[in-house]
From TrEMBL:
The lineage of its organism: Eukaryota, Metazoa, Chordata, Craniata, Vertebrata. It comes from Crocodylus porosus. This is THO complex 5. Residues 1-35 are annotated as: Disordered. It comes from the Eukaryota. Residues 22-35 have a biased composition (Basic and acidic residues).
Amino acid sequence: MSSDSSKKRKPKVIRTDGAAPDGKRSKADAEQDVKYYSEETEVDLRDPGKDYELYKETCEELQRLMAEIQDLKSKGSKDSVRRDLLEYCASEVLAHNKTLKWEN
């Protein structure tokens, strides 16, 4: 095998489907792809009872995690297991905060 054959360029493909030759899309094409999000429609489809239960469970879990974080910090030891547990709890708190933001 020669090194010349591995360096050959592929031939350019010319599009004939009516698209712009430089690969850019026109504004009209971009507008057709836009999907609209309607929060009101989503709210109408969701069950308020399930939303309340999710909110309640999330708040309870946040309370438990915050108490656990406070307990771990008050012990004052800096071992790696405790530090890893603190990081885990903190990431869980952030995830629950995202859940509450999404829900509201």
